[in-house]
Design brief:
Low-confidence stretches: none
Helix content: 55-70%
Number of strands: 0
Number of helices: 11
Largest sheet: none
Radius of gyration: 25 Å
Distance between the termini: 46 Å
Order of helices and strands: HHHHHHHHHHH
Structural class: mainly alpha
Length: 273
C-alpha cells in the first residue's frame, strides 16, 4: 500500500481547492470560515490525549494538520505565503528561541550541551518572545504590554494569559490571600447588581468575578481551563449516574421533584469522582 507524504497532502488540498474540478464546499471556504474548525480540531486533539486514545490521537493530529494545510493553500492562492514558508518560519523561530541548543543559530551545526535549568529555559524563552513582540509592535506601529494576547483564545485561557503578562511586569498580588478578599468583594458586587435588576451591570460584575477566579487559579498554581473542564466531566458522570438510577425505576429527570433530584445528586457524589 502506498504511503502518502506531506507532499501528497499539499497536492490533495490543491485538488480540493481547484475551482473547476474541486470540492464546492472546500472551494468556497475562507480564512474566516475555516478558523472555527481549526480551533475545534485543536480541542479534539486535547480530548484524545486526555482519553489516552492514541490511535484516535493520530487521526486528530491529521485533522489538525489538515487545517494548517488548508490555511496555507488559501494563502498561496492569494500570493501571501505557502506551506514551505510556514515551515521555514517555524524552524527559524524555534532555532532563535533555543540559543542554548543552537548557539550558532544553525540547525545542522554541532549541538551545544545545555547547562540551563527548566526555569532558566522558560525565562529565556519568555525574554526572546518579549523581544519578538516588541519588534512586531514597532513594525506594525502598535504598542501595549497586553496587545499580543489573541482575542480568539477561550475566555478563561485568555484571562490567564493576560494576567500572566501583567504579573510579569509587576502588576499582581504577591500571594493568594488578597485574591480571596477580592473574590468576596466581586461576589458582593454581583449580588448587588442582581438585586438592582440591572442586566448590563450584572453581566459586567459576573465577568469581574470570573476574571478574579482565574487570578486565584494562578496563585494556587492551577489551570483555570483544565479545572473547569474536570468539573464539567465530573458533572456529566454524576448526571449519568442519576439517569441510570431513574431508568431502573422507569422514571425521567423531568418527572422528579427537586427534592428527589437532590437526594440522587448526593448519592451520586458518594459513588462518582
Amino acid at each position: 500500500m502506498q504511503r502518502y507524504t506531506i507532499k501528497d497532502l499539499i497536492f490533495l488540498m490543491q485538488q480540493l481547492r481547484n475551482t473547476e474540478h474541486g470540492c464546492p464546499w472546500d472551494v468556497k471556504q475562507t480564512f474566516e470560515t475555516i478558523a472555527r474548525y481549526t480551533i475545534e480540531e485543536a480541542y479534539e486533539v486535547a480530548d484524545a490525549i486526555t482519553s489516552k486514545d492514541f490511535n484516535h490521537l493520530k487521526e486528530e493530529l491529521g485533522d489538525l494538520l489538515l487545517q494548517v494545510i488548508f490555511h496555507a493553500q488559501m494563502a498561496d492562492e492569494k500570493s501571501l505565503f505557502n506551506f514551505n514558508d510556514v515551515v521555514h518560519t517555524l524552524v527559524t523561530k524555534l532555532i532563535r528561541r533555543h540559543p542554548h541548543v543552537f548557539p550558532e543559530g544553525d540547525l545542522y551545526a554541532p549541538l551545544a550541551k545545555s547547562t540551563l535549568t527548566d526555569d532558566q529555559v522558560k525565562n529565556l524563552w519568555e525574554k526572546i518572545k518579549q523581544q519578538e513582540e516588541k519588534e512586531r509592535q514597532e513594525k506594525n506601529n502598535t504598542s501595549g504590554l497586553l496587545t499580543g494576547v489573541a482575542r480568539a483564545l477561550p475566555a478563561l485561557k485568555r484571562a490567564q494569559k493576560i494576567q500572566e503578562k501583567a504579573a510579569h511586569h509587576g502588576f499582581d498580588w504577591q500571594e493568594a490571600q488578597p485574591v480571596f478578599a477580592k473574590l468576596r468583594e466581586e461576589s458582593d458586587e454581583l449580588e448587588q447588581a442582581c438585586k438592582s435588576n440591572n442586566a448590563e451591570a450584572t453581566e459586567e460584575e459576573f465577568g469581574d468575578l470570573l476574571f478574579t477566579m482565574v487570578n486565584l487559579s494562578r496563585h494556587l498554581q492551577l489551570n483555570a481551563e483544565q479545572s473547569l473542564d474536570k468539573a464539567c466531566h465530573k458533572f456529566i458522570k454524576r448526571f449519568a449516574y442519576i439517569e441510570e438510577k431513574l431508568a431502573q425505576q422507569e422514571k425521567t429527570v423531568n418527572a422528579c421533584s427537586p427534592e428527589e433530584l437532590d437526594l440522587l445528586w448526593n448519592e451520586a457524589k458518594q459513588f462518582t469522582t
